[in-house]
Amino acid sequence: MPQAESIATLQECLQRIVVHCGRHVRLATPLGLGKPNALLNALYRRAKADPELQLDVYTALSLARPAPGSGLQRRFLAPFLSRHFGQDYPDLDYVADQLREQVPANVQISEFYLQSGALLRSAQAQQACASENYTHVARDLVPRRINVIAQLVAARGEGAARHFSLSCNPDVTLDLLDRMESAGLPRPLMVAVVHPALPFLGNHADVPGDFFDLEFCLAEPAHALFALPREPIEDVEYAIGYHASTLVRDGGTLQIGIGALSDALVAALLERQQDNAAYRDAVAALAGEAAGAGDELQLDPFRTGLYGASEMVMDGFMHLRKAGILKRCSYDDLAIEQARADGLLDDPVAAGRVDALLECGVLPRQVDARQLVRLQHFGLLPAAARLADGALSLPDGRVLGTDLDDTGVRKAWDGVLTGRRLQGGRYLRGAFFLGSKDLYAWLRQLEGDDHDGLDMTRVSDVNQLYGGREKLDALQRRGARFFNTCMMATVLGAAVSDQLADGRVISGVGGQYNFVAMAHALDDGRSILLLHAAREAHGTVESNIRYNYGHTTIPRHLRDIYVTEYGIADLRGRSDEDCIKAMLSIADARFIDDLARQARQNGKLDRAFRIPDAWRANTPEHLARKLAPLHHARKLPSWPLGSDFDALEQQLLPALALLRKRSATRRGKLKLLWQALVAGGHRNGHNLLLERMELEQAGTMGERLQRRLLLAALASSHDTGTLVQ
């Protein structure tokens, strides 16, 4: 088949799409980073200008830069956003129109996952949102008769040697094409938009030059890739991360998401490996009375290491790989994987193993051409070995027999196998990646085993066990710990992760249900949901552990493990009453009595039950006292995995967060104004901070008030760190 046709201009690419699709463009484009924003904007503008052109866009996670806002927020964010994303980043026009309720009638934007909280107030986005598992997306797109797929890709080579990498998003594309072909539908027009800075990743993400029909290359220097600014980790997240890290088994499998809770988990795992004594001290300081916490406790450093199988590849996996934790490889061969799990196949191969490897099926009794290719692929035989006249000729001149039932042949094979290194292993499989600039830079420079061992692949290969190789998939995922976050949980074990009780979608189900269900399907797998025990909104503190809620993402019959800052609740296989007790043990003490009262009223908790005194210590104040020695020892940095904010911005953030928190109520606003008046205009060594906020020379009354507010917040903040003079 011919190579992808190179298109010189964006407008020409747009015209080819419209000509191919006619008056109804049904376009699928990847979630997150893989969207070709410039092309999508051109197509959207064309549809807005031509009401006769129907445009249906099927996607998810349409990323948008945060709005700078006004006042102090703008003074802080505007320079940061300009530096972080650049001046020419092409925001998606349809997202802005969704927020204004101005998407025209001839355009339908359907997403199965929304940027968290960004579109709560958009009726158009809420009405068009599709609630479905990540693994069902390709199936459900088939009836839509997609006629064009447009994707941001990486490329290498020229002419006949040209090939592409689906890079950040092989997740749905490969599955969708296969399903459309099986349904007898025509292949969509495949459009590659090549970004010069997108990492070229191999394995399943590497596709031939004829995979795409059209290729449009963004000119260098292209706009920045969308990079998520890394969040600071606070005490609550650290506590959750430490608790959660004790559930991770050496030699097991890890799935994690994104955000401060996941970063805190990774930070704890890194400390467990690199400073085990300090890690044990931290875990001991946080130890509580949580039900079942001791059943799974894992504190030792990692010797075998972990294997990653996560729909999303984020910064945490980079740090775990660099630290030598993410190193257990899986192999797409049932006999080899079983032998590895049973300790029969070392890497490098130990001497004297040929008999065991023959018995377990790693070695065949008779080596034919197919088995030769297999053994070479996994490194058990040299790539230059040749089969001829019933014998194997090795590049060093040795000749091996092919009948391994012969004792002499096996002895010769043992000499060849001893010391050989396995090949073809994967330390991490993911369906899409999204993270910081540091992550993208790391992915671009991967080479050797680090590059070959990372497999970006189909979401159907990562998020489920189905597909005809269930036994191998389960074996690869041995000791799996699937970590996800949720907003709320009920005392009976249901989780609320994606939607409010009134039906409005915060984000989406995505792959969370997939991983929870998979944890129950695996003999030694566990689903672990992380959440804050309480939250503060508009000056009011609310419990995130509820007796009941009007929507659930994970039903209570799939309850497993929950982790809050106050400990671990293991709910698997427990009665309703025991589940309630376990969840009360990790709830915020300010809400325990009311939760217990509701449970008693509904007959789910024995009326004679009394709250243990230890649970009443589940308060922010008591947690702060537990963590105080760690703060004193500087063991809880705000950005343990790196920051996108410079030193001045890191000092400003706590003060700005304090202002935002206190201004949530009328009383708080009045208190802020009074503090601002009392603070006056004294700089107190904050010269560079004022300069960063362009308030060193405050001329107008508004600027003077903003400066006073900022100075008051800096004086009140308990976490400004060492000021830069």
What does this structure look like?
With 725 residues, the protein is an alpha/beta fold. Helices cover 37% and strands 15% of the residues. The protein is built from 27 helices and 25 strands. Strands 1, 2, 3, 4, 5, 6, 7, 8 and 9 form a nine-stranded mixed beta sheet that branches. A hairpin with a 5-residue loop joins strand 13 and strand 14 (399-401). Residues 718-725 have low confidence and may be disordered.
Short recap of the structure:
The protein is α/β, with parallel strands linked by helices. A hairpin with a 2-residue loop joins β12 and β13 (391-393). α1 crosses α2.
Give structural attributes.
disordered C terminus; 37% helix; 8-stranded mixed sheet; 725 residues; alpha/beta
Radius of gyration: 28 Å
Average pLDDT level: 94
Q: Give the class from helix and strand content and strand pairing.
A: alpha/beta
Helix content: 25-40%
Give the biggest sheet. 9 strands, mixed
How many runs of DSSP E, i.e. beta strands? 25
The shape is globular
**Roughly how many Å apart are the termini?**
65 Å
